[in-house]
Each structure stands twice: as C-alpha cells, then as structure tokens.
Automatic annotation (TrEMBL):
Entry protein name: Serine protease
InterPro entries associated with the record: Peptidase_S1_PA (IPR009003), Peptidase_S1_PA_chymotrypsin (IPR043504)
GO function terms (MF aspect): peptidase activity
GO biological process: proteolysis
Keyword list, A-Z: Hydrolase, Protease
Top-level division of the source organism's lineage: Bacteria
Length: 268
C-alpha cells in the first residue's frame, strides 16, 4: 500500500479511535482507548482496560453493575460489552497462565451508530526499524500557561473568553493524541493448545505511551493497523542501594496478527 503523509494518518485515526470508560455507580474504574475494526462497531482494545487490573479475572468481565462505554469523535458514548477479554495460554511448565492482553468489544443491542470507521489491519507483524504511529486518548493535555488560574475573573469579557477557550480544549480532548515512533525490538511468539493456535509479536516502540492510550492502535505509514498499545516499558534505577522500576521512554505493543490468528482458529 502507498505511504500516506503523517497528517493524513493522524486525521484518519481521529474517527476510528475511541475513548473507553468503565464505571460502576458513577465511579470510574478504568479508562483507555480502542479502535473500530468493523462497520458494525466491533472494537479492539487491551484486556486490562476492560477489567481495570491485571491479571484478568473472569468475575471482572461484564460484571454486574458495571457500564462500559466507547466514545468516538463527535458522537455520544455508546454502551459496549466484552466478547473476548484476554487470551489465556496454559502450560504445565508455568505456575500461572500467560496472558495476551487483547480484547474485542461489541455494542450492546440497539447501540448502533452510522459513524463507525474501521481501520484496515495487517496479518503480519511489524518489522524492526519500521516507522509507525500510535494513537490514544491523553490525560496529559491541559490548557497552556494555566490561563484559567491566572486570568482575573473581574476583567471585562473574561467569562466569554474562558468559555471559548474551554470549547476549544474540549474539541482537542475529543480527538486522540497521535505520536510517531520506530519499532526498536520485535519478539515473536507462538503457542498451540489443542485446536487453538496463536502467534504474533510483542514489540517495543521508541516513544513513551501517555496515560489513557492503553488499547490504542499502532499503524504503519499506510495507515494500516499492525499492533495494539498495551503498556509502558519500565527501566530499573537505583536509589540508595534500592532498585526501583520507573517508566522508560518506550511503549510495548502486541501485533494485531495475534488476535486475528486466534479468532480464525475459533471460527474454524
């Protein structure tokens, strides 16, 4: 496929990436990002966005009393449920199951929209050194210069000014943040359990993942999905002989190939 200009890639992601929120009795339990993969509104995200924690527990999936919504740009929130949440890999050699942190969501019955714009996706993983773009909703964006705190409210026109500034801020927050990066490391994996097969890649991106981006897409230079953002990479530092882990400047992602191969196995 033909490579697209960076601005075209980021613009195309605006309508396909959604903000995901999980609430219970009005309290936010978890939030993250996802993206549409079908005209009917199926969404892919990270499994831990659905449950709010790791490891994935069955009782956390579509739990009674919880409400999960996905909100795309310029549309109201739509109620969703998880159809697949986490792929468990079992082996007698390990004390616990290995988890592939991916999930598929579907709109609840009657929760439809004409605005679903699915992203195309590849059935092969990314290549080392490949340029990619990651997108997700950010909790980092704020009004510049803290003008809402500095502005004298008694100044003539201050209220109107802040109203327009807030509208512009909300417009920005209604779109995902897009970041350009390079694939710095690729680790292949493959597993078979009975008739079920899964294979794919875990890969590192040389760009920090912002808060709220978990579950967002990683696309190549043609705008095609190659992976799903899962979490920040960490590095170890020492403080007075104590070793602690802190976020590094990289992010981890899982290839969309892993989800596709697993789903095809289930369909067969």
């Amino acid at each position: 496929m033909t490579n697209l200009p960076p601005e075209s890639i980021c613009e195309s992601l605006n309508d396909s990436v959604c903000a995901i929120t999980m609430t219970e009795d009005g309290e936010v339990l978890s939030s993250g990002s996802g993206f549409a993969i079908s005209p009917e509104g199926q969404v892919v995200t990270a499994a831990h966005v659905v449950t709010g924690r790791l490891p994935i527990r069955e009782e956390d999936i579509n739990a009674d009393g919880t409400v999960m919504t996905c909100q795309f740009h310029s549309t109201p929130p739509i109620a969703y449920e998880a159809k697949l949440c986490g792929i468990q890999l079992r082996s007698n050699a390990f004390r616990e199951n290995l988890l592939v942190d991916l999930a598929i969501l579907e709109p609840l019955q009657g929760q439809k929209s004409e605005t679903f714009k699915p992203l195309p996706r590849k059935r092969i993983g990314p290549k080392l050194g490949q340029t990619v773009y990651m997108a997700g909703f950010s909790e980092e964006v704020e009004l510049p210069f803290k003008i809402e705190a500095l502005l004298d409210p008694d100044t003539p026109g201050a209220g109107r000014f802040l109203h327009h500034v807030d509208r512009g801020y909300q417009a920005v927050m209604g779109k995902p943040m897009c970041k350009r990066a390079m694939v710095g490391n690729v680790l292949e994996f493959s597993a078979t359990s009975g008739s079920r097969v899964i294979k794919g890649d875990v890969f590192y991106i040389d760009q920090a993942m912002h808060q709220g981006a978990s579950g967002g897409p990683v696309v190549d230079e043609s705008g095609v999905v190659v992976g799903v953002v899962t979490h920040r990479a960490v590095t170890k530092v020492y403080r007075e002989a104590e070793r602690i882990e802190v976020p590094s400047g990289s992010a981890l992602a899982i290839s969309i190939e892993a989800l596709d191969t697993y789903v095809r196995t289930l369909d067969n």
